[in-house]
Amino acid sequence: MMRWQWLIAVGLLLALLLIAMAFHVNAQPNVQLYEGIALDAGLLHLDKRALDEAYHAQMVKLFGVWLASGAPADATNFRRGMGIARRAYGAAAGQIAEREKQLRP
Questions:
Q1: Which of 23, 60, 66, 93 has its CA at 20 to 30 Å from residue 8's CA atom?
Q2: Is the predicted pLDDT of residue 16 greater than 70, yes or no?
Q3: How far apart are CA 96 and CA 43, in angstroms?
């Protein structure tokens, strides 16, 4: 009897974990950066360059703050900032790539 109770508890825990993960994924908005913006090859090239420069500037800032705070072993805020920067970079780079595909015949 104890074995069944344990299995039921594990099953319920897994179900709750899956539900929490589903809500977490749905809570992250899918931002459309280029909605309503005309397609322009020259400006798209500049957008790509600006994204790279903005990412670099953000990483310089993150490393600067981390170093200025004594480079603590617990770099939770640094990792969180890096995760946000990479997630945003990936989303924007993906949208730029989609626009580049639209330019090809």
A1: 23
A2: no
A3: 11
**CB count, 10 Å around CB of 42?**
7
Residue 23 has pLDDT above 60, yes or no: no
- The secondary structure of residue 72, as a DSSP letter, is -
User: Span 11-22, mean pLDDT?
Assistant: 64
Give the C-alpha separation, 2 to 4, whole Å: 6
- Cα 81 to Cα 44: distance, rounded to the nearest angstrom: 26
Phi, psi of 5 (to 5 degrees): -65, -40
Q: Pick the closest to residue 39 from 95, 88, 92, 93 (CA basis).
A: 95
